[in-house]
Structures are given as structure tokens and as C-alpha cells.
Amino acid sequence: MSVLRPNKPDSTPCVGICSHNVGGEVCKGCGRTVEEVCDWNRYTSEEKIEVKRVCQIRLLQFKPA
After folding, report:
1. How far apart are CA 45 and CA 18, in angstroms?
2. Which of 10, 21, 53, 64 is the most exposed place for a label (fewest CB within 10 A)?
3. Would you write out the chain's pLDDT as a tens digit for each of its 65 residues?
4. Exposed/middle/buried for 35, CB within 10 Å: 0-12, 13-18, 19+?
5. Quick check: 2 and 12 in contact, CB under 8 A?
6. How many degrees, rounded to 5, is the angle at CA 64 between CA 63 and CA 65?
7. Which of 59, 65, 36, 33 is nearest to 48 (CA)?
8. Which long-range contacts (CB under 8 A, 24 or more apart) does 42-50 make?
9. In this predicted structure, what is the pLDDT of residue 7?
10. What distance in Å separates the CA atoms of residue 22 and residue 40, rounded to the nearest whole number?
């Protein structure tokens, strides 16, 4: 969920805890790759919604079972 526009389905999933600067391939805050973060503003609304869906799956992998 976005901190900026939480009610918009295509809003950024950024939660303000970026972990890319410590060498991670996937941000542990929002679940996006470096490429997805850089390209976010070029994506269509549909692409943003799909990236957010994939991010939710990625973030589940970081949570302990």
C-alpha cells in the first residue's frame, strides 16, 4: 500500500523503507526491483497494478514462516 495515495490501485507501493542502497535485488520495503523503481513513472496503470501484485508475492518470501 502506498504512503502517498493508499486508495489508488496504481499508486506507488513505496513505504519509505528502501533497501536497494544496501545491495538487495528486491526492496524489502515495497518488493520492487531496482528496474521497477526506476521505470515506475513510465508504466501504465495496468502495469503498475501488476507490479504491485507481484511485489506482494515477493514480500511474502521475506516473511518468516
Report:
1. 22
2. 64
3. 444 455 688 899 998 888 766 567 888 889 999 899 999 999 999 999 999 999 999 988 876 65
4. exposed
5. yes
6. 115
7. 36
8. 45/9, 45/10, 46/10, 48/9, 48/10, 48/11, 48/12, 49/9, 49/10
9. 63
10. 20
User: Which residue in 38, 28, 39, 31 sits closest to 55, CA to CA?
Assistant: 31
Q: Which residue reads 504491485 in cell numbers?
A: 52
- The whole model's pTM is what? 0.77
Task: Specify the residue for cell string 536497494.
Answer: 20
**What cell does 25 get?**
535485488
pLDDT of residue 52: 94
